[in-house]
Amino acid sequence: MVAEKIFRTENITKVYDTGEVKVYALAGVSLELFAGELAVLLGPSGSGKSTLLNILGGLDHATEGRVWFRDLELTDLGDRGLTKFRRDHVGFVFQFYNLVPSLTARENVQLVTDVAPNPMPAAEALDLVGLGHRLDHFPSEMSGGEQQRVAIARAIAKRPEVLLCDEPTGALDSKTGVQVLEVLKTINDQFGTTTAVITHNAAIQQMAHRVIQFQDGKISEVHVNETRLAPHNIVW
Amino acid sequence: MQALDKKLFRDFKRLWVQGVAIAMVLACGVALLLTSFGMYQALDDTRSAYYERNRFADVWIDARRAPESLLPEIRAIDGIYAVDPTVSGFAILDIEGRVESAVGHVLSWPEDNDPLLNVPLLRSGDYPDPTSSSEVMVNEPFAEANGFEIGSVFHANLNGQRRALRIVGTALSPEYIYTIGPGGMMPDNEGFGIIWMPERAASAAFDMQGAFNGLAIKITQDAREEAVIDALDDVLEAYGGLGAHGRDQQTSDSFVSSEIDQLRGMAMVVPPIFFAIAAFLVSMVMGRIVALERSEIGLLKAIGYSDFEICLHYLLLAAFIALVGIGIGWGGGTWLAYDMAMEYVVFFDFPYLLFRVPGWVYAISGLAALLTTMLGAARAAIMAARLAPAIAMQPPAPPRFKRSFIDVLMARARLSQPTIMILRSFFRWPVRSAMTCLGLGFAVSAVIAASFVHDALDNIVDVAFYQSNRQDAMLLFTDDVPETTIAEVRRLPGVLQAEPQQYLPAILRNGPLEKSLAIEARRPGTDLSRVIGADGSVSTAEPGGILLAERLASQLDLGIGDLVEVEFLSGRRETHEMVVTGLVEQYFGLGAYIDLGYLNEIFRQSPRMSVVNVTLDDNELDALHARLKDLPRLSGLIMMTDTRRSFQDTIRENVTVMNTVYIVIAVLITVGVAYNGARIQLSERARELASLRILGFSRGEVSYVLVGETMFLALVAQPVGWLLGAGIAQVMVNAFSSDLYAMPLILNPDIFARASLVVLAAALASALIVRRRLDNLNLVSVMKTRE
Predict the structure, then answer these.
(1) Assuming Cys at both sites, which of A225, B133, B331, B441 could form a disulfide with B721, CB separation 3.0 to 4.6 Å?
(2) What is the arithmetic mean of pLDDT over B198-209?
(3) Domains of chain A
């Protein structure tokens, strides 16, 4: 059985026009992401991986080329359409956790469960990331790893079809970083959520199904891992 | 220019909208300070110059009829510098083209030389020829209001004789800066005029040959006014003296003085409020700027800038805002002060305006604005100076939130997360929330303070005109006439109802306390002129006693059952002791009332009266006026409908101007507070709000957090504003109370509703302007920026 295509891009470019110089953040990228896969997007900073993730997640438009989510074409979708797309299908995790400081862990997750069509209870999402005992703590009362796990709980609580993670371990030490990766793997295994992880930490590629290498706004190499490592076996 | 200075200019350029919003509030304070002081100074200077140049008298006394032979004795009184005797009287005027009769106050124009005191200032034409019996000079506003030119003729009923008078000149007099006719409440230049008539003609008209019935007196610099007043009273007692008085009881001067005092009071109270709000706004904005520029501050310190230089840098940024505010305030204030002073020149009949805002007022207002701004910025600047470089370059720790009982309440209420965000932020920064509410509360109170005056005056008009005085007109007689004359009045065309009344000038005494006033006497159960209390109930003076207005009773330290000594200055000029049988709370004047029958009894006389109150048939007004103009012994006529109209017109005009000014001020404050508040929120929450957008919240839902918090603060500010407004109204009521009138504290719900509506609308508009920035929020870049 051929796995279903979740995302498909067709020769997309992204140009930042500053007036004097044109910067090509993406210089023609065609890519497919499949249901249930955990892909790691690897590359140096400025290679275009974040730009691609933002376009896939409906945060940005491509300058040229076309983008589909299943049968939904995102290419020319307006603000309202993109908002609905993000609300219904996508979970985001960022390097800086972007939690609302005035809301507790549970309330931060509820931000999503209040508006999503078929969410899991906030407490369950936090349980999944191992924070069942920290429900009523404010972000200022939690460590960086814990805050990032709340951010992941917030991202998965809506049962998204895709989870887009931009440097999820970038601000963490390796021990807490591994904990966060474990959570991502659990989600991917348990719910089959298509997961794309951006990183410039090459060690992380060992847990992926597929590794996509970026260089100068283009995909330079794609390879499939025959054997995957569990996060606790990854060292950096 | 040093790099740090360049940063200063660029920062200011970047923040100019916020800066201007604050500067406008500051400018309000500066402009109001300038306007109040400028108008005060202009009125005070103009009045002083006018009084000095035209030799305004110090003391006045009216008498029934005193022989000129008495003058040497009066001039010999210790402390008297100059004496100017006059003959004066009231006359009903018949002006061509005017249906209603007007009233003229006739003053004699000396035969041999110009008047010594209260010298009229000739505005057009010439002084009347002393030998002429028909030439007169009139006050300029009266001539203008009636369209008179030099050579115009009108008729006057002088003591029963109809005479044609020709205008040869117009003038203004320091005695009539505020020209108000008998029984009038507002100047009515069309219906009341001052007529200077050659002495010979005036004496003949009022039967005063070789005599005078008024004196104007200038006292020497070292004289004691009270001593002169007592001596004058003694000398003129036998000639029907009506009690000497100083400038404080001169109608025109007391009106002008109370206005000048109010201006000075306003200068002390209002501007500091604006300065305080501006200081708070500066403190809020500067606090945020320092928080945002944390890492830059760290960098500057790492490079080697001193704490002092950094502190100064942020203080200078605030000083820029202050300078803009001071500039706008000085410009606007100077213009406003001149414009308002010109309004006063028209309202009061000044011949010219000496406009000068003293340099020290500019200096003080500028300094006050600069200092308050610096004070507002001080905390943020010191905070910046104190940041240790190593810590400054790290991102700040996320703001700490703690669970409290409020969270329990919110959990019970099952509020949405955005609502919880709004509420938590409100309680997390209680001082900032409280100050914001206070600022918006002041805006609400400004509207309340302006609008309540309208309702209060409406109530005064209702009680004074529609409940107390229900007559269409009052007929005033030159002398007491037998009450039987009322039968004659009832036969006049158009008169439907007529009731007698008596006014008696008198001095009320209680030990060392005394007050001169006119006692009103009327029959019990009269229908047209009644004594109405503030609560709307009718009071009646019981036979055998006197009914006093509460304000009068408290000034004389009298209560019900006390005895008061009443010295009548007319009629038999007797002194009687009367029991205070009742007190009544009133807005206007210092009323004292007795029963007309009781008065006749103690004077041992047949019933007499000096005023008849009438109701009229509108269809026969022309016929009535035609007859009145020729009626002997009638000295005045007050058309109450005219008085009511002119009073209400004047009030409406003044109140509209005042309301507009205060609404503008309220809007400026609201915009200053709400716009800056929302901008700071947006800057603090940009990341949070962007996260919400990424999580799938629509623009509207995200706007809710931003606009919601502003509006929540604005809502909480409403009761604060209502309380402040009620307090300010109370202060205004106390400040307005004088011998002339008291103002009721009437606060109808619609006043609060209107004030709230103005402020909520301005707050919403401000938040929506900031909300537009939310649309342009670059989600990706916001998420990338490290806090």
Answers:
(1) B441
(2) 91
(3) 36-58+90-233 (3.40.50.300)
pTM score, whole prediction: 0.73
How far does the CA of residue A86 sit from the closest CA of chain B (Å)? 5
**Shortest CA distance from B425: residue in chain A:** A102
Q: Which residues contact B287 (CB under 8 A, 6 or more apart)?
A: B379, B380, B383
Residue of chain B whose alpha carbon sits nearest to that of A89: B696
Chain A positions in Cβ-Cβ contact with residue B400 (cut-off 8 Å): 138, 140-141
User: In terms of C-beta density within 10 A (0-12 exposed, 13-18 middle, 19 or more buried), how is residue B182 classed?
Assistant: middle
The predicted-structure confidence for B88-125, as pLDDT tens digits, reads as follows: 988 888 888 777 778 899 999 998 778 889 999 999 99
CA distance A153 to A183: 9
Question: Which among B400, B401, B416, B784 is the top mutation candidate for probing chain A, defined by the most A β-carbons within 10 Å of its own β-carbon?
Answer: B401
Is residue A46 within 8 angstroms of chain B, CB to CB? Answer: no
Q: B567-600: per-residue pLDDT in tens?
A: 887 777 789 999 999 998 887 777 899 999 999 8
Q: Do A102 and B424 touch (CB under 8 A)?
A: yes
Q: Do the Cβ atoms of B505 and B569 come closer than 8 Å? A: yes
Of B424, B698, B783, the CB nearest to A98: B783
Is A16 an 8 Å CB contact of chain B? no
**Complex ipTM more than 0.85, yes or no:** no
- Domains of chain B as residue ranges with CATH: 11-58+250-396 (no CATH), 59-249 (no CATH), 429-469+640-787 (no CATH), 495-616 (2.40.40)
